[in-house]
Amino acid sequence: MDGVFESIPEIIDSASKSLLATFSLLVILLTLLAFLFFRKSSARIKVSIFLLLLLGVVVFSVTLFSGDFNGENHLSKIDDTLIIGGKDFPESNIILEIMAQTIHSKIPNLKIERIYSITVSRNIFDKMLRGEVHLYGEYTGTILAKHFNRPFREYSNLKSHSKNFINKLFQKDKDKRHLKWLGRFGFDNKYMLTMLRVKAEAIGIIGKDGRTNISRLSGVSDKLTFRSTPDFFDRPDGLKGLVTEYKLNFKDDQIILHEDKYSSLKNNEMDVTDGYETDPEIYSEDNLFIKIEDDQGFFPSYYLGPLIDQGFLEKFGTLEIVLAMLSNKISEKEMAGLIGQYQKEGLYGKNLNTSGIAQSKLQKIVHKFLVKKKVLAD
Description:
This protein is an alpha/beta fold. It has 3 domains: about 20-65; about 85-185 and about 305-370, Periplasmic binding protein-like II (D-Maltodextrin-Binding Protein, domain 2); about 190-295, Osmoprotection protein (prox), domain 2 (D-Maltodextrin-Binding Protein, domain 2), CATH 3.40.190. It has 17 helices and 11 strands. The chain has helices spanning about 1-15, 20-35, 45-65, 90-105, 120-130, 140-145, 150-155, 165-170, 195-200, 215-220, 230-235, 240-245, 260-265, 310-315, 320-325, 330-345, 355-370, and strands spanning about 80-85, 110-120, 135-140, 180, 190-195, 210-215, 225-230, 250-255, 270-275, 290-295, 305-310. The strands form 3 sheets. Strands 6-10-5-9-7-8 form a 6-stranded mixed beta sheet. Strands 3-11-4 form a 3-stranded antiparallel beta sheet. A two-stranded parallel sheet has the order 1-2. Strand 1 (about 80-85), helix 4 (about 90-105) and strand 2 (about 110-120) form a beta-alpha-beta unit. The longest helix has 24 residues, at about 45-65. The chain is elongated. Mean pLDDT is about 85; it is low at about 65-75.
């Protein structure tokens, strides 16, 4: 409910862009003031005040729920089909389905089109700028670093990941001001390092509390190999910055596919790799892998939340309220569990856009989760 209440000022602000909504807001306000001044008046006057208040509430509600706003963006270009996109990895497709099912359950008259597995962050963002995608889950770190080219020092600052800060960036950019980030789903999917637990024990970097960190790793890094994706090598919050921050000196570092990381660790083909806080392998019951904690706080946050074309918020007045139902609903461990089910069902690498069976499996995974979180009825 907190997310809903936080959205109320913004919803009223959007509604106030309509003359009809503004008029009804004034009617409600003046009627409340009249009630205060004339509360000791006759029953006839009180009835009149009540009827005016009722009229204001009804008109405002009709305006809000019909999306009859005259905003300054491209509302005339918005049709009745909301296109929701996902990037080409499990977490993004899961979030696509979470948003789609939640919206459909609350606004059934809004048509939804799903486009799964759009390659590369920049591609899906460009599609959104062109109006080919209207909603997808985006990370604060990606918005700051890639979409606005903010310096690493800024997006490593937690304050830069707030909804207000990010939306001010969108508002200042004439080509992007029609977009709005609606706040976090809850989890922070930042980078982390990991390795086999048994190997960490063998080189003596696990403390008495059963945990380890990158500072301990740095003392033995010259004896270890490191593998990661090309993206991690090139990022300011990736290997280059990490090596400088912790004075790491790996014996060897090479490129590897993301889906091969944990199997390569397990087969002793490498010693250390990077991962994400929502990797299911970190939470597996066999406790095979150990998270190497970022004790100096180098890795910036990557909070995931809905990025949406504001035209749909204006045309469908309840849409922001509906998406606010997902605010702070998903933890790192819960997302890791969903990704684990995604992998178990063999959906990794499947074309969800053409396989009805794969889509059905994903929809069942998500529906069960949303029922458990009391977002959907059983």
